[in-house]
Amino acid sequence: MSELKSLGRKVDYTFDYSPNFLEAIPNKNSARNYFVKLNCEEFTCVCPITHQPDFATLIIRYIPDEKLVESKSLKLYLTSFRNTGTFHEDVVNRIADDLIKLLAPRYLEIEGLFRVRGGIAIEPFVNYGRGEFEELAKTRLAEHK
């Protein structure tokens, strides 16, 4: 896995959005359908209007195909949002787009559990499914609470 840029190496962090951190590794179990769940409890970004910090737990679930996201690269990628002005709904969609582009998963969903600010907690949910998992995406979205 010497082609990986960050795993096992010192990496300079950036606090401005950069999808270039994301890396994938081969899925050695691609013949099987299974979920990968990633709890990212320390996500931060800033409001694009007030520049006040926003804090969230992101829950990423996916059914991989040929690739898995390399976890250090995901950490560096998520950290890159720290000074990025973005609305909660936009950030989960951007992360979904970047992970779909990187992984081409069978299924992916992201839930953003943003902390209360101004008396309102915003919790956007986005999902995607391809092939036999398109119906799962429709059902999970329709039943999401």
What does this structure look like?
The protein has one domain (19-143): GTP Cyclohydrolase I, domain 2 (2-Layer Sandwich). The chain is built from three helices and six strands; from the N terminus they run E-E-E-E-H-H-E-E-H. The chain has helices at residues 71-79, 88-103, 134-143, and strands spanning 24-26, 36-46, 53-63, 67-69, 107-114, 125-129. The strands form two sheets. Strands 2-3-5-6 form a four-stranded antiparallel sheet, sandwiched between helices. A two-stranded antiparallel ribbon has the order 1-4. The chain starts with 23 loop residues before the first strand and ends with a helix. The model has no long low-confidence stretch (mean pLDDT 93).
Q: State the share of residues found in helices, binned by percent.
A: 10-25%
* Mean pLDDT over the residues: 93
What top-tier CATH class fits best?
A: Alpha Beta
Shape designation: flat
Unreliable residue runs: none
Tally of helical runs: 3
CATH superfamily: GTP cyclohydrolase I, C-terminal domain/NADPH-dependent 7-cyano-7-deazaguanine reductase, N-terminal domain
Query: Spatial order of the strands in the main sheet?
Result: 2-3-5-6
- Main beta sheet, described? 4 strands, antiparallel
Approximately how much beta-strand content do the residues carry?
25-35%
- H/E element sequence: EEEEHHEEH
Number of strands: 6
> What's the structural domain tally?
1
Determine Rg (CA atoms, Å).
Answer: 16 Å
| N/C terminus separation | 40 Å
Counting helices, strands and paired strands, the structural category is alpha+beta
Give the CATH topology.
Answer: GTP Cyclohydrolase I, domain 2
